[in-house]
Amino acid sequence: MRVKVNDRELELAPGTSVIDAVFAAGYDVPYFCSQAYMSPIGACRMCLARIGAPRKDRDGNWLVDDATGEPKVFFFPTMMATCTTVVMEGMVVDTLSKEVKDAQRGMVEFTLINHPLDCPVCDKGGACELQDRAYEYGTGRSRFVFDKRHQEKHHPLSELITLDRERCIHCKRCVRYFEEVPGDEVLDFIERGGHTYIGTLEEGLPSNFTGNITDICPVGALLDATSRFRGRNWEYDHTFTTSLDDASGSAIVIDARTGRIERIKSGINPEVNKSWIDDGIRFGHEYAGDPERLRRPLLRRGDAFEEASWDEAAAFISERLGGLSGKDVGIAIRADATLEEGVAARALAELIGTGQVDHAPRHGPSLVPVHGATLQDLATATAVIVLGDVTEELPALDLRIKDALKGVSPPPLFAHGVPIADLRLKERMPRARERLTVVAPYRVGLMQHAGRPVVVPVGGEAAWLQAMTDVANGTDPDEGALGMGRAEAQGLVRQWREASKAVMVVGGFVLASAKATDAAAALAKAVGASQLLVPPMANGRGLEITQVLPSHARYDYRGMLAGSAKALLLSGLDPARDPATAARLGACELLVVHDLFLTDTAKLAHVVLPGKSGYEKDGTTVSLEGRFLPVRAAPVDNGEAEDLTGVVKVLGEAFGKRLEGRSVRSARRVLRKELGFDPAELDRLGLLHDLPRRRSGVSVGPRQEATGAALRVPTMVRPEYLARNPRLRAALGDLALRLHPADAAGHDLHDGDEVRVPVDGAPWRLRIVLSEAVPRGVCLVPATPDAPVGRAHVALEQVVHERRALEVA
Amino acid sequence: MSVLDIAKGMGVTLGHLFKKPVTVQYPDEPAQIKARFRGRHHLLRHPDTGLEKCIGCSLCAAACPAYAIYVEAAENDQEDPVSAGERYASIYEINMLRCIFCGFCEEACPTGAVVLGHEFELADFRYQDFVYRKEDMLVGVKGSKWQRREAAAKGTAVRVALEAPGRPELEGVEH
After folding, report:
1. Using CB atoms, which residue from B59, B61, B73 is nearest to A229?
2. For residue A699, what pLDDT is reported?
């Protein structure tokens, strides 16, 4: 389509909106209601322009202007909202004439009629679209002398989001967002005309993705309650980085002020998280500023700890290690460590001469699928098989799956980025639910969007996958395991096979079992699906690729804890909740703990080293799709905290060695050789870089798989830090033990009770949540880095009540 | 040079001998300060309610060319508010060593909370004593930190050796 915007002619694809044509031509129109990735609705009437197009006569010939001989341009009788107008051949758009400027100025004035002059106290001030547009397009002077509309000023929509109803300009972005993006309709307009306000039917916002509305609100009506009044927008240091809270590789922006993280906003990565992040990532940062954080190394003196310098700590460690055989030393790092930290751990293990090096949590099977899919593949898939609870495990996947159900292919990119108004998107679009199959051992949130929800018994994934593979291969399946009729299963398999693109998302419940993982791979192969394997923590795939793995299966993390190591260096891990493990750790000849807080394990240690959170590290991470993404450090006041490269530097110096991996730079020199590119040169969007599957021949999976009738389930929040995230905890509640009401009755348990209960022998304090979504005979408890997603034993008969909900009431 | 020139010069000298001296006997006598002189800042209160005018918006800090101002805001307890509205300054600091007394903060302030007054005797001994906090600047506080310290040690009233006509912006500030 040939379009002329003011004086510039350009060629655009049919279906492009006029607003994108204007931006593509390098001109500007103001807008409030349009938002990339959401349907354009023309609610704010701000993007007005004068639009004309040539017409054809009855014979299909252009009507020609007699004077010029060119096709005559007929202008629309009124100004048009450019966001909802589609380009036409020969269209002429005028955004510069006086009529257009007057119309835009009028709209700004109209929008400002009822907008309070709160800017000095508004958290949006300085980053406000209305402020900017009023400055650029407004009159600069108010003609209204009468009183403005008065409504509720700070209405807590939830613990995490504050709504100021006076500031709302009714652009409907937030309402549309909930319906179109996560599909949780929790917000709507109430009343009409000037009385309109947004509100919820229920208390709070029951969704995992509520925080995004604070990013898209063009004014200061919806604000992040965790950063309320913490700083002005121009005072924040913005760090564009990648979240290490899960393996999605979501882009985030950390806003810090005077050494404190005040808020996290969504970054933009069109191929990963678009511009959305879940509430766990957005609001789960308060722990980084907790006053109890370790700021200096601690050395044990008798029963107490004493603060020490890094050099003293390193000298102590190297002296103790000198008396030990190198082979008896174990090094375990948490699987959200960066690749650079992985290189450092490897270098340290090499120096000491031990093969006992591992990252945890780690499932047995490899996280690099044979036929891997990307998130973009998932978003454009025509058949999606989900094994597990992705809404909690890796919420970004949940949103990409919902994109796939809409069936709208990723938009073309303009020079100004993704389209501001993608006219293919509509309000309340039909979703092809039949494309989605969700298989999990309990009713998960995504099942309401699935054409085929299948609840399998605990540990029954392998049998189901095997049965479906049998159906696909035409052999006799175990019909009991199918959970549906054979004909129905055959129909399903045919649908997957015939789909132009089928993607299987494999969650932790399956990955916890090597048999089930193999069965999933077999089914994927049989129906021609590619796979996305969900790592238990952010960089599981990266640490596997960079071989932070034991030399032998019995030297894995669990083996180290079980006694194969006499000296241990644990980074970020806290296994001491289990009393048996705690006893063994207490008997270690040397226990070095590198962590943010004085955890139960750290209390047993000889040396405690202060660690950095995922917001304070520089490095590289690998997302579940194999995308290498940069992690950048936000300016946070963390005392003398160091990441693992810093630990290795000081320890290496104590041994008189300059180790590879003594700094991020030196680790990157190693990575450059191994990966074939320089991680320092990664841009924010990252790099999809295929690497061969695990190179070492040894099997390094756990020797025995967990058993038990209960399940450790993934949570969107990080359970190890929930107690130090007060806002998030208030909004989402304490860590829960979920079970069926009928099971609860037998054990005198009531909704909201606080109980102490042994999970695999380790005491847990949990809040009882009764839910019909949980099958009878099953308990759901949260998974932690030390006890990842999978099966567990919960001794319900040993429940001790800490507090009864009835007493509180 | 002629004798006449010398006599002329002496004449000038002689003429000045009988003029009123312009020397100010500061600090024994107060310095006469002009109304629009820009000295130490005052943080004003609403005279009727006694609430602080400052809403912690940080616009003064944004306008400050010397980066001398630091503000942290917090939410008002509606039962016992510090300022009018939702927000108040929980920390308000001006570093008087950095400050160049340009008055941009006063111009930027949307509520007229920070106004440059007439006090100029800000000399002190330690760096940290030049950082004036809210309690050093709120209306009613007279004198620099050092003057108030000295007065407290001697048990006398704070003596500010200046006199200045009032200015409408300095609502509630007495001299």
Report:
1. B73
2. 52
